[in-house]
Structure formats: structure tokens, C-alpha cells
Amino acid sequence: MSGLELCGLAKRFGATVAVEGFDLRVAPGELVCLLGPSGSGKSTVLRMVGGFERPSAGTVLIGGQDVTYLPPERRPTSMMFQSHALWPHMSVAENIAFGLRLRGLGRAEVETRVEEALATVGLTSLGKRRPSQLSGGQQQRVALARSLVLEPKILLLDEPFASLDQHLRERLREEVRDLQKRLGITMLFVTHGQDEALSLADRIVVMEAGRIQQADRPDRLYRDPSTPFVAGFIGTMNLVAGDVQEGRLSAEGFTLATPLPDGPALLAVRPEAVEVLPGGGPGRLHRATDFGSHAVLEVDLPGGPRVKALCPAMPALSPGDAVTLRAMRWQIFRDDRVVLRSADVEVSAHA
User: Fold this and answer.
1) Cβ-contact 181, 173 below 8 angstroms
2) Where do the domains of the chain lie?
3) Within 13 Å, how many C-alpha atoms sit on residue 135's CB side?
4) What is the pLDDT of residues 49-91, one digit of tens each?
5) Which CATH superfamily is domain 4-232 in?
6) What kind of fold does domain 238-350 have according to CATH?
């Protein structure tokens, strides 16, 4: 197994900066997801790792070897694209064998490795079929087998399940995760789907405007986002502008004690950390939706924002009822950085 190191990676297209100051280490056997909105630079990073884009600056190291200027065919990588890109006139086995034959491997070795790759992805009996005779999920498995058969040190995946329906996408990403763990292969996976990243990755790199906003474990990204962008991008987050005066933060329907100096602040509260109490407050219930296992309440605040709260059961409230909101766990941001967490206050209170 080999690790990946990206140092000061940058890519500019004329005056447009696609990626800037990108530093990342991926440990051997680690699965890292690049997550961000369209245009954040995640696919550009992947293409630079694979050799399909030349960096404007920085270096790409695989297993300690500088591969920055090597062409794709000379890198120990394999890339799986969103499109299956299978040759329609070739059988499944021939599609998988194509790259091996380009490398000049003997017929017996090619056949052995193709059989092993088919078994790895659960398609042992389908080697003689054409791609048109397969389902979308089976075609994607063929594309994965074609990448794995080259025995890459780093497997690169660029939104490979984006064109599939939700149920098939969920099943395939579970299979890829199980396969990655079994083989111990290092993977760099690009997606714009939060659920996909949260369920697949050992670590997630959240990107915005070509830069890393935060790189961390999925649970830490969700529970402890370091910037307002990450807070609003990962999961559902209530972001409410407020003001600190004399040790208290007032943010529309929320008030809480804080040791911060006076000034503007941004309060971040997850829906599951919002307690909704009937009456007494400035909030008005807009809608309550019963999902069986839980209920989601939407509350309108006087200044305009609408807050979501997740409750274990449907409350005895009707649209238009006055409610009070209480933040049980929260973060406060200033100047695009987290400056205080409820956990920090709890620790200091018990110190």
C-alpha cells in the first residue's frame, strides 16, 4: 500500500484560480472524500493526481515518489469516472483486459487477473456478456473491475455513482467501502453528496473556491465544523445572526450566556439540538411534519429566518402557535471562524 501527499498544489486556467494552496496527506489504505459544491475544485485536484491536468504549482507524491509531471499511464493510479466509458463492441472480460494488454502482459496472466477482478466485484459468470446486456449497477462494477485489475497504488473515483438511482447508489457505495477495506487500497473519492461522503470516508476534505475549508473525520465535521461554510454545507444547520451584549447573545429567538466580548456573532444550532417549548416566545410554528420515528418542526422567527427542530414525537402544537426556542448544543462564529462552543462553556463551568 502507498500513501499520497499533495504539497502546495495549485491550478489556474488563465486568470481563473481553480485550486490554490492545497495540502493533503492520505495515509496508505485510507479512503478520503473530496466534498464540495460544483466549481469548488475537487475534480481538478483528482485530475492532477491522476495526471490528466498539470499543476500550475505544487507537487504530487505517491509512496514518496514525485509523479507531478508523469503522464497518467506512468503513474501507479487508476481512475474511475462518472461515465462507465465501456467499449460496447467488447465483452465484459475484454473491457477489463484492455489496460492489461496495453501494458504488454501475456495472455495467461491477463486471463487470470481478469477472472480475479470479476470475482472481486461479484461478476464471475458475466465475462462473456456485452455491456448493453448489463444493468447500470453491473456496468459500474465492470468499470470498477477495470480499474482494480491494473493493481493501482491509488484508486481515484470521480462521482462514479452520480448517474445511478438512489437505492442502487447506496448499495454500490456500501460494496465499494467493503471492497476497499478488504483490499486495503488507498482511495481518493470525489462527490458532491453529503450522505455519500459521510457513509464512505475515513476523512472528508470540504472544499470551497479551490481551497480546503476543513479536513476531518465525518463525525467531527458534523459535530464540530470550523467555519460557517462547513457548518451550513454538512447536514442541516440553523445559522442565525445575533449580537453579544454584556455577556448575553441574542439571536432572534435564541438567548444564551456567553463570555465573548460585545459584538456581532453567528449562532449555529443543529435541528436535533433545538428544544421547542410551547408559548412565551417570539417564534411561531410554521409547519410540523411527522416522519414516524421523529417530527420536524419549522419555526418562523421575527427577523425572518426559519429554524428547523427535530423532536422525538409530534407535539401538541398547531401552525401559528407561539413557541420558545432553546439551544441545547451550539457554536458561535466570528470572522468566519468558530470562537466558542457550548462544550467549552460546560467544561469551564465544571472546572
Assistant:
1) no
2) 4-232, 238-350
3) 8
4) 999 999 999 999 999 999 999 999 889 998 887 776 788 899 9
5) P-loop containing nucleotide triphosphate hydrolases (3.40.50.300)
6) OB fold (Dihydrolipoamide Acetyltransferase, E2P) (2.40.50)
Residue whose cell numbers read 457505495: 173
C-beta of residue 41 within 8 angstroms of C-beta of residue 49:
no
Could you check whether 4-232 and 238-350 share the same CATH topology?
no
Distance CA 299, CA 321 (A): 10
Burial class (CB in 10 A: 0-12, 13-18, 19+), 144: buried
Local structure of 106: helix, strand or coil? coil
Give 1's pLDDT tier (boundaries 50, 70, 90).
Answer: low
Full 3-state SS string of 114-162: HHHHHHHCCCHHHCCCCHHHCCHHHHHHHHHHHHHCCCCCEEEEECCCC
Q: Which of 232, 307, 239 minimizes the C-alpha distance to 274?
A: 307
Grid cell 407535539 in the structure block, residue: 315
CA distances from 122 to 9, 32, 115, 140, 146 (A): 37, 24, 10, 12, 13
Cβ proximity of 33 and 205 under 8 Å: yes
Give the Cα separation of 233 and 195 in Å (integer): 12
- Count of alpha carbons within 13 angstroms of residue 250, beta-carbon side: 7
Digit-coded pLDDT (tens) for 222-255: 999 999 999 999 989 999 999 999 999 999 889 9
